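User: I'm new to structure prediction. If I give you an amino acid sequence, what do you actually give back? Let's try with this one:
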Amino acid sequence: MLDQGIKIIIADDHEIFRDGLSLVLKKEKDFNLIEQAINGIDLINKINLHHPDVVLTDIKMPGMDGIEATKIISDKFPTVKIIALSMFDEDNLIADMFEAGAKGYLLKNAHKNEIIEAIKTVYEDGNYFCEAASMKLVKMLAKSKQASKQQQVEFNDRELDIIKLICKQLTALEIADKVFLSKRTVEGYRMRILEKMNVKNTAGVVVYALRNQLITEEEILD
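Assistant: Good question. You get back a string of structure tokens that encode the predicted 3D arrangement of the chain. For your 222 residues, that looks like this:
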């Protein structure tokens, strides 16, 4: 555990949402929720005062939205890691957030375990892609400058086959049937692939695979 925990600020113009997210974060011993902000201007002022490690910010806010705030934060406070909070129908805005400097994104109804994992991932300088990402958004994120800072590693032929099937969103059982392996063996391969890519879920695998040309958009749709 960190001495003071990962220092976090939440920014959202809806008090009820901020309070609900605060309750989740305050229960985690490794987290230190230090402030809440109501819009981008308020967020920047509080970052200047408190120097957080991670910020979770809504995209749509009055006064200054999350995209503009992220651009300023990335320029003035480059060590602060930003996670975008979004609704289901905001793919273009999420992509804009990554271009502005965000390191991760979560749907506002994300499970608490995913929120915890996202914060820890971006704090450790990784990217976090919400498990429920649409394929449209995944393709957009694969082209994002901010989402492209991962070193490519080598994969053997079996791993490449499984990567392509993961990208087609097949389950472990469906993949096992395709490659004539047990479900447990496929799950082992999947865990190794996630570790080698340094990603956390299927969305991360697809972004990595597209970005590093392990699969094409046409193959995913095939």
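You can read the tokens as a compact description of the fold. Here is one thing that stands out. The CA atoms of residues 79 and 110 lie 25 Å apart.
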